[in-house]
C-alpha cells in the first residue's frame, strides 16, 4: 500500500492515500470523517486504520495495533468510542465534531 517511503513515513503515506481515495487504503468508512480527522494535527500524527466501518488511530504502524485510543464509528450519526467500545464518548452529525471529540479524549502523551 505504501508506495514512496523516501519522502513519507508510513502514517503520512496512509493518510495521503486515504484522502486520495486510493482503493487499498479505503476499506469502508466515511470520506467526510477521514477528511475531518486528517485536518486535526494530533490525529494526523497517528496511524489511521479503517476496519468494520470504524476509523481507528494507532501509535504504531504494524500489527498488533496499539488499540488504546478513542475512535470514530462512521455511522450516522458519527459515534466516538473509548478503546474497545468501553464507553460511548459522544455522537454527532458533523464529522469535524467527531474528530474534535477524539482529540479531546487523547492521552497527553
TrEMBL record:
InterPro entries: DUF6193 (IPR045682)
Originating organism: Streptomyces caniferus
Name under which the protein is recorded: DUF6193 family natural product biosynthesis protein
Domain of life: Bacteria
